[in-house]
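Progress note, sequence design subtask.
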């Protein structure tokens, strides 16, 4: 039997000095977690996703934002927001949560390849950071529908808005998203 992770306790530990950032993270993570769990429960597949892991990892996927310099989220670290995934991985590996840590690193956008990181000169390690497991893909997909920005916080993005955003990053990203959407939420139009 797996010992459950206590995501809120971990968030409280790392966000003790920033209650506003903590609240933003909790609201966003709860939205992502609800959608990811709904998808996982309704999935028509032979592969049965790990619901406990999805609940935990969806709550922790953005924990690294506290180490970024993102004042609008009340985060006053030193890294760029793009680095919140690897910062989250570092935090969760330190906590002994290697599988959860990979979700942090691999959820940025729809994932990043080492080639994209190198070509765009992104401030990230030059390695593939793509969702691999079914659970990682579900969380990454669900995250695309919610924003932490002041203007859009709490609101669910429409399918077309998500597609429009991803289109800016290339047809390959949009293709991956469309495949996930057909697999995870075929009822969305």
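Output:
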């Amino acid at each position: 039997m797996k010992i459950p992770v206590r995501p809120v306790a971990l968030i409280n530990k790392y966000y003790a000095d920033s209650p506003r950032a903590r609240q933003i993270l909790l609201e966003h993570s709860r939205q992502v977690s609800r959608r990811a769990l709904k998808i996982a429960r309704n999935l028509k597949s032979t592969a049965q996703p790990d619901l406990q892991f999805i609940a935990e990892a969806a709550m922790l996927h953005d924990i690294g934002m506290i180490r970024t310099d993102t004042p609008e989220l009340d985060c006053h670290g030193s890294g760029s927001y793009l680095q919140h995934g690897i910062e989250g991985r570092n935090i969760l590996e330190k906590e002994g949560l290697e599988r959860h840590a990979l979700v942090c690193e691999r959820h940025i956008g729809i994932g990043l390849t080492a080639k994209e990181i190198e070509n765009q000169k992104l401030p990230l390690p030059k390695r593939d950071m793509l969702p691999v497991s079914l659970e990682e893909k579900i969380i990454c997909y669900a995250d695309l529908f919610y924003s932490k920005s002041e203007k859009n916080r709490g609101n669910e993005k429409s399918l077309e808005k998500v597609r429009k955003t991803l289109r800016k990053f290339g047809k390959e990203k949009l293709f991956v998203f469309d495949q996930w959407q057909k697999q995870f939420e075929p009822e969305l139009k």
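The beta strands are 69-70, 75-76. Work on this subtask will continue into the next period as scheduled.
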